[in-house]
Amino acid sequence: MSTNQINIEFSPLQETAINNDFADIDTNFPFAVNLTKDERGSIPNIDNERYPYAQRTMDIHAPNNPNLVSGFAGTYAEAQRDWRLVNQCEGFKQKALMLIEKLNDTQHLSGSEVYKFMRQLYATAKLAAANNVPGADAIVDDLKSLFEGQGVELPPNP
Q1: Residue 46: what pLDDT?
Q2: pLDDT classification of 74: cutoffs 50, 70, 90
Q3: CA–CA gap between residue 158 and residue 155 (Å, rounded)
Q4: CA 88 to CA 95: how far, in whole Å?
Q5: What pLDDT sits at residue 59?
Q6: Closest alpha carbon to 113 in 19, 7, 1, 34
Q7: How far is CA 64 from CA 71, 80, 110, in A?
Q8: What is the pTM of this model?
Q9: If 0-12 CB within 10 Å is exposed, 13-18 middle and 19+ buried, where does residue 65 land?
């Protein structure tokens, strides 16, 4: 009895649409930056702990104290644009992370189902090889390095 929980795939139309959507995102994000690990670790940033301070600086301190904005770190207008981008990126990032979680989970479940199918086919091929069924030895030889020594073997489906 099959226990397949996700017996579906993207249609060619869906696959094309999704790939086009990713291309559209890339097209609409021409200023995207790709930092190296060293660059990412060496520049200061706003993490969860610093975010409230940045928010108060941008929403309260700088607009209420324009005489203290020196211009050495950029103008307030530039900082406002950067602040909007921080918040826009966060919104997009959360949507992307939710989608990545769904993609990962869907791939994990479908991969698990392929693995169970493969394991069952291997068990059946072992029985068939013992009965000299043509082609069974080739399957066993190909898959045995993956399955040998992994514990209890599944009996083939009747």
Answers
A1: 93
A2: confident
A3: 9
A4: 11
A5: 97
A6: 7
A7: 16, 14, 55
A8: 0.78
A9: exposed
